[in-house]
Protein 1
Amino acid sequence: MSKAQTVSTTASDPTVAAAAAQFLSPLVLGLEALTVNGKQAHWHVRGANFVGVHELLDTIVAHAGDFADTAAERIVALGLPIDARLSAVAEKAGATAVPAGFAQSDDVIRAVISDIDAILADTQAAIDGLDEIDLTSQDVAIEIKRGLDKDRWFLVSHIAA
Ligand SMILES: [Fe+2]
């Protein structure tokens, strides 16, 4: 009688999984913070182009949630957990530029761009760091960078000359 075949949890090599977790975890935490701080911005923006900026911020929040999900699920698909509890998110990305109360749209836009730029720096580090380790995880980071670059463009176009 043959022994039941053991099915491994994932098909990944431990080095690949560790690298994916190392480089993609900061993206998950930064993007989760953006979903919260972007809502703060969405609720409190005032002034020029109110409707457009208010609605754009909701779109950016939705994208951030999708990007976080993609990065987190890549880590989990490789067999590792991620601590994305609120305490971990706050520790990584607590220092938002988004103000606590009402603010004019130009200031809100600059604040959200600043938060996005911090995530973009981690995203570039992930693209570079994963280059010789795991192209599939690097592709996740590239997809996120492409999306954040576009959202940043939509924001910056409101304040560019
Ligand atoms: Fe809303």
Note: The mean pLDDT is 94.
Protein 2
Amino acid sequence: MASKTSRIFLFLLVMTVSFVVLILSQEYLSKSWTIFSGKHELGWETFPLNINLWGQEEKTAVPPSVSTTAVVETPMPLLYRGNFTKLPQWDFDDVYNQDAPPRPTTCAQSLRNSQDENFKKAFLPNIRLFLHKDNINMSEWNRLSHFNNPFGFMQFKYDDVMASVKLIPKPKEPLLLPKPGGDGCVHCAVVGTAGILNGSKVGAEIDAHDYVFRMNGAVTKGYEEDVGNRTSVYVHTQHSITASRYIFGKYGYKSAPHDEGIKYVLIPEAMRDFQWLEGLFKGNESFSGPHHKKWPGAYYSGQYNENRFYVLHQDFLRYVRNRFLKSPNLNKRFWAIVRPTNGAFALFLALHTCDTVDAYGFMTDDYMKYSNYYVQKYIKTRVIFYANHDYKLEKNTWKDLHNRKIIKLYQRMEPESGTEKPK
Ligand SMILES: *[C@@H]1O[C@H](CO)[C@@H](O)[C@H](O)[C@H]1NC(C)=O
Ligand SMILES: *[C@@H]1O[C@H](CO)[C@@H](O)[C@H](O)[C@H]1NC(C)=O
Ligand SMILES: *[C@@H]1O[C@H](CO)[C@@H](O)[C@H](O)[C@H]1NC(C)=O
Ligand SMILES: *[C@@H]1O[C@H](CO)[C@@H](O)[C@H](O)[C@H]1NC(C)=O
Ligand SMILES: *[C@@H]1O[C@H](CO)[C@@H](O)[C@H](O)[C@H]1NC(C)=O
């Protein structure tokens, strides 16, 4: 008994000492970091926000460790994801670059005018949405290198990432503008891929919006009655645009949506996305990369255009996670793969570029009644939960946003018997 106790004591001692050594070895990187303490309540509705963040100038987004130096010319030493057993919490984690407001809104019913206290606290209407060659520099690089991808550049080499970032053009226009002759509001539908849309017959309702966002395996041909046929904004990653052919090919997916004038938005989730961008912008028809076999532009079916291509900013992605979708899984060993879904990022992009947002095909409480994807019409599949996403948290967040009248979430009222026959 006594030897067991002393072994445990020795073990704890060794752990404590190594932890202290780890802290000391990291301290030169930043004088002020604290490990995610778990004191943050989970879920955006209870986020203990420091309201003082609101009015801060961009320069406060520079971490303390570099802001004291007038000119920073070199990338900081690499931080490794494997050195952290849970999400590291830096004191500048919840500080973000903001841009000038894209446009004055003339829309009285805009979600920007919501009086919901929790939403007002969490929502940054002018959060920087897009990364481009003119809004990156060495202090930005070093600040963002504290956060794992897609929330920053942790463990990435400066030259590898900058080879493509320095090619990303500054967007010439906001993602969306009010439609001429409309009511001054930007009305958006965001269409997820969930099975709830099968048999919904909301296609015409979706298409009636000013803009329609879709993501991932957004098959419309053959499903128009339920999901509509228009796509104005397609949100994707290198992985989703290349893998969708294999995953959804048998359901009719041939290529990413390519409506005339469509806007493409890339979530730079991994190094392969930066390689993709490099090939895309270099415009060399024969440029293929390690993760794809042809020029990336060919995946956009003739609609790729530099002026209509947007790359989401790490600050925006981190803000969505921190303020709205902070999963308890970020405290687990596999924290580094935990991130919101592409659908979640698309929905939040709409919340920051539209006045009204109607969400269709997102997960609802009764998800078990439906297939995983709406394209799975003829066989009832089960919804798959991957460890890198917190689907329950997302589901509850959509419902909460709906209840607070920030979005309108498509939910089905009628009992749906589906094809679940007793076996
Ligand atoms: C951090 O991770 C790197 C790469 O895996 C490793 O070489 C290094 O020893 C680790 N540092 C500490 C302090 O554990
Ligand atoms: C670097 O970029 C940030 C964000 O765009 C900006 O606030 C800052 O002033 C820039 N710093 C330098 C030294 O140019
Ligand atoms: C899809 O919708 C159709 C029409 O409502 C229905 O007959 C079918 O059972 C549904 N499929 C599944 C898998 O729920
Ligand atoms: C969508 O459907 C409508 C009505 O059937 C049709 O007029 C329109 O051309 C279609 N749009 C696309 C992009 O296929
Ligand atoms: C385009 O790529 C091919 C194959 O990698 C290469 O041989 C060629 O020189 C490149 N052309 C330009 C203009 O970069």
Note: The first strand starts at residue 33 and ends at 35.
Protein 3
Amino acid sequence: MTSSLGSWRSTAELLPLNSTIVTLSAPQSGTSGTRAASIRLIMAIVVHPSRIHAYGCYTTEPIQKAATVIEYTGPRLTVDEADTLYENSPRTYLFGLEDGKQVIDGDGLAAFINHSCDPNCEPDEINGRVFIFAIRDIKAGEELTYDYNLYDGELDDVAPCSCRSQNCRRSMYSETEIARRPKLKSRKRKLLR
Ligand SMILES: [Zn+2]
């Protein structure tokens, strides 16, 4: 899995995320092999104000489970390049690739998709490209979401979640990261003494 850093950059004030330097990642149990042969993108996606956060992506057409919804497009940067470029940026749209060395600097509609702890989509990396797939049938008018599984954020930022789902974990960090962060904090405190 990845170990880079990322987050969300804003060129406008439309932004899905709050300020931390974090990285989005695809789940480790990706099904890339079966998906690679059948990519056909859904073209009925619009950006609209969201009840989860700021603006989000909505579909104007029903989407079937397993359909390829949209590609997460953007230039590829190394983690170091992204660190330098966005060092002082409160928000970025970086998506960490599985090699742990590169991130996609999101520049398309997919960068507007909000996080949910009970999402209707999931990202998957296929040959270095990231696609967002429907993981259940989605009705016309629904907001598209996926689980950001954030990692490598600032320890003082909990990346609060406002998805309102019943199983909301109150943070956009991955479960692994949520479990790891208290240990990192404790180590940092010790180092500071
Ligand atoms: Zn949530």
Note: The longest strand covers residues 121-126.
Protein 4
Amino acid sequence: MSNIPQDAIKCLDKGFVRLVDAMGGDNAIVQAARVSYGKGTAKVSQDRGLIRYLMRHRHTTPFEMVEFKFHCKMPIFVARQWVRHRTANINEYSLRYSEARDEFYFPDPENIQFQSSLNKQGRLGQVSESLKSKVTDYFKEISDRSFELYSELNEAGVARELARAILPVNLYTEWYWKNDLHNLLHFIGLRSDSHAQYEIRVFSDAMAKSVKKIAPFAWEAYQDYVVRGLRFSRVEQGLLEQNLPTRVIDDVLEDITYQITASLNENKPRNDSDLFPLYKKEGGYDTEEDFRLKWNSGEIEVGNVRELREFKEKLISFKK
Ligand SMILES: Cc1cc2nc3c(=O)[nH]c(=O)nc-3n(C[C@H](O)[C@H](O)[C@H](O)COP(=O)(O)OP(=O)(O)OC[C@H]3O[C@@H](n4cnc5c(N)ncnc54)[C@H](O)[C@@H]3O)c2cc1C
């Protein structure tokens, strides 16, 4: 099995993730989307806006135009979780064909913790040094002994496909794993999350670095709308509708109106005298005097006009 290649990101004690090949990037997403929306966006800022629009509205197929191929080496118990992501193409090291190597995962003492009582699938709390040593010794003992028996059976000519079955799941395996950006982001969303097991998180975080480099706008949009975005159920919306004071909603709407005005002005600068009418046209309530004060304060943020208008629509729906 491979040692850690120079261009790989080391993961756990003996594993790695290495980007072998990538096809496309943010440009491929935009190119594919233009087929559905027609020609037009040429500027980088417009490309970013389009990618953000696609992500916001879950128009996902353009993200499938970007492909990533990784060479990864991980313990078998991590591969068991990884392989649940069904849209990838995989080719794995075969223990029917090749002999296993004496490469087992031994957890770093700082990652040896108690079973969490809060999260049934997690770990928590500090374990004593003596218990940590015991865990490390047991990992070592079972790995050494099983490998000894495996080697003995191998030397006696027993079929490798059978002999391998006595090896534990902390044995390292390796594979080539290819997936498209849409499904890779989905993988990272689930496996870099704090609820995922630490050992797979390490690999997911390593792959995320490649995504960030190759498709930075898509990565940013995924973080903004999926990872850090919030969705409200029908019941939750009902509660907000009932309890959010109209005064608070109006304050936020007013703030958005300022942001839309400033964003429109940034996209296509206006004469000073046209600014207040523009703000009014967008639904602003302030007097011209108040408008001037706020406008000159330098506190107004600039955003994406379409996104701000969508937010406005959502907020208006909360008004009784
Ligand atoms: C924290 C955590 C805990 C978990 N715990 C368990 C557990 O206790 N037991 C267990 O068995 N699994 C567990 N899993 C695995 C989990 O149930 C999923 O199998 C895994 O995360 C893959 O998700 P996926 O199906 O969305 O991904 P993928 O297989 O990559 O699929 C991506 C998307 O493609 C679509 N898709 C793919 N195949 C089909 C299909 N056949 N039909 C319809 N749509 C499809 C779906 O929209 C899917 O979301 C856990 C996962 C996580 C992250």
Note: Residues 234-317 form one domain.
